[in-house]
Recover the amino acids of this structure.
């Protein structure tokens, strides 16, 4: 296994994770401001970065398998343990920074998920107010007859 190739992949991962964290922060701002046009652009950029990270992971795992590392031990935790035995602090520090960036991205993604969930709940509440209550048994139509209990009326036709 080429140390330089592995180091380059890991440094690329760190750079991609920095970019992802910036995009997730920008995504949070767009969600808060409801800037849907910019949000669509950010989502496209985020998909590209995630594809690069996934590709790097695939290449890194392939390199490790070619070097004789079992397939179930090619993740970052096992790699850190493996490289830590050799006493190479450069790789260990690089892996630590990658792990901290992954954690930061996970937290930002979680915050964005909460914002989206709350926004969806607010939209559903507003729609239910506009649609009106489901039970309309005591209301009369414009012709003087009572409405059935299962009918709904939009606020615009009330």
């Amino acid at each position: 296994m080429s140390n330089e190739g592995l180091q380059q992949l890991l440094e690329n991962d760190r750079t991609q994770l920095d970019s992802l964290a910036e995009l997730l922060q920008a995504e949070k701002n767009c969600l808060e401001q409801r800037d849907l046009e910019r949000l669509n652009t950010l989502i496209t950029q985020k998909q590209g970065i995630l594809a690069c990270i996934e590709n790097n992971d695939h290449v890194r795992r392939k390199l490790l398998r070619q070097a004789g590392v079992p397939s179930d031990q090619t993740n970052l935790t096992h790699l850190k343990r493996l490289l830590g035995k050799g006493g190479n602090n450069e790789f260990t520090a690089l892996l630590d920074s990658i792990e901290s960036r992954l954690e930061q991205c996970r937290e930002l993604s979680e915050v964005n998920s909460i914002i989206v969930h709350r926004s969806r709940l607010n939209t559903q509440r507003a729609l239910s107010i506009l649609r009106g209550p489901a039970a309309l048994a005591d209301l009369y139509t414009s012709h003087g007859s009572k409405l059935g209990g299962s009918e709904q009326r939009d606020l615009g036709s009330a």
About this structure: The chain has a mean pLDDT of 83.
